[in-house]
Amino acid sequence: MQTTRLAAMAVLAAGLGFGADAAAQETVKVGLILPMTGPFASTGRQIDAAVRLYLAQHGNMAGGKRIEVVLKDDTGVAPETTRRLAQELVIQDKVAILAGFGLTPLARASAPVATQAKVPMIVMAAGTSIITTDSPYILRTSFTLPQSASAMATWALNNGIKSAVSIVTDYGPGVDAENSFKGVFTKGGGAMAGEMRTPLQNPDFAPFLQRAKDAKPDAVFVFMPSGQGAPFMKQFAERGLAGAGIKLIGTGDVTDDDILNGMGEPALGVITAHFYSAAHPSPENKAYVEAFEKANAGMRPNFMSVGGWDGMHLIFETLKKTGGKTDGDAFLAAAKGMTWTSPRGPIKIEPDTRDITQNIYIRRVESVGGKLYNVEFANIGMVKDPGKN
Ligand code: PHB
């Protein structure tokens, strides 16, 4: 009798769409791919911490669904590994949303997986302009290099810098930063006294810095990916460029909050343009930094972390709008045009490009209470990705 009734209930449940599958359907899995080990592990650590903090503060329900994050470490250096993980997450783990993507080549390699499976792909870190054009299912909550590099060039022109040497890492975001800085700077009457590209893996900056010093520019403009700024800064000081009157300017990646305090003296006074500083003076950011440091043994959040935080916010708010529906087209339609106040300031997901528009701030490294911070002293305002104009 008991078994018969159970069997009958199972048949009924299956008929109504409440079978074994149904429990699974009540959960929305998010496949989070990050470099948790290897040379870019700080990016993975920061984004993972922000995602966990978001879930801790907001609970794990959105649009009536339970959100489950499945974290995979791609080690940050092999695009084919990231792409394989994205495929496995979609096919085997049945994730409804892909997220993370620490570096440009890893995001670009994974884009076809999002397109084929019609799965939303939230780029939380990588910053080359072109990425969002790789798939109609990509949304970006990080930044683009042209946003900060163009603002830096304008500031340089307005502040007596007439010649510059650029030193950038030789891959997508570095090339974007170089082109964008050079374009705005030379159009405004500035002169490039040299353009150099350093290798992504194990760079030795000494020969580049020596050539830059010999060119005697007013400033060196630098882009280094998050996590690589410290050795550059150390060698800039050791080679005596500051002593020779050469200013150091750049995108804020080089004075990354994750490692800034450890850079010491050489970082003081460095001017950068960027979208996030842990010292950003807003109530939202004060609350974010305090909660983040408390949950992570004092670790200071950097700009990568807010890409992760806002990526989770985008997922939660979009699922609320779709009533928990995750199919790529419904999700994208609901996400496009969304605006909110991030710890970094106001942000918008542009409906036409699916890319982020945000404030860019000009900052100077200063000692605040004995610790180094990027202190914002000018706000350029909301900047759409200039790389797409
Ligand atoms: C990227 O690979 O797109 C990237 C990585 C680190 C950065 C900026 C861009 O700081």
In short:
The protein has helices at 2-15, 20-25, 41-58, 79-91, 104-117, 145-158, 172-187, 206-214, 229-238, 283-295, 303-322, 328-335; strands at residues 27-34, 61-62, 65-73, 97-100, 121-123, 138-140, 163-169, 191-198, 219-223, 247-251, 271-274, 339-342, 345-349, 356-368, 371-383. With 389 residues, it is of the alpha/beta class. Helix 7 (172-187) links the parallel strand 7 (163-169) and strand 8 (191-198).
Layout of SSEs?
Elements: H1 2-15, H2 20-25, E1 27-34, H3 41-58, E2 61-62, E3 65-73, H4 79-91, E4 97-100, H5 104-117, E5 121-123, E6 138-140, H6 145-158, E7 163-169, H7 172-187, E8 191-198, H8 206-214, E9 219-223, H9 229-238, E10 247-251, E11 271-274, H10 283-295, H11 303-322, H12 328-335, E12 339-342, E13 345-349, E14 356-368, E15 371-383
Parallel strand pairs: 1-3, 1-4, 4-5, 5-6, 7-8, 7-9, 9-10, 10-11
Antiparallel strand pairs: 2-3, 11-14, 12-13, 13-14, 14-15
Helix pairs in contact: 3-11, 4-5, 6-7, 11-12
Bound molecules: P-hydroxybenzoic acid (PHB).
Structure keywords:
40% helix; 15 strands; 24% strand; 389 residues; 9-stranded mixed sheet; single chain
Molecular structure report:
The protein has helices spanning 2-15, 20-25, 41-58, 79-91, 104-117, 145-158, 172-187, 206-214, 229-238, 283-295, 303-322, 328-335; strands spanning 27-34, 61-62, 65-73, 97-100, 121-123, 138-140, 163-169, 191-198, 219-223, 247-251, 271-274, 339-342, 345-349, 356-368, 371-383. It has 389 residues and is α/β, with parallel strands linked by helices. The structure holds P-hydroxybenzoic acid. The site of P-hydroxybenzoic acid has 10 residues, from helix 7.
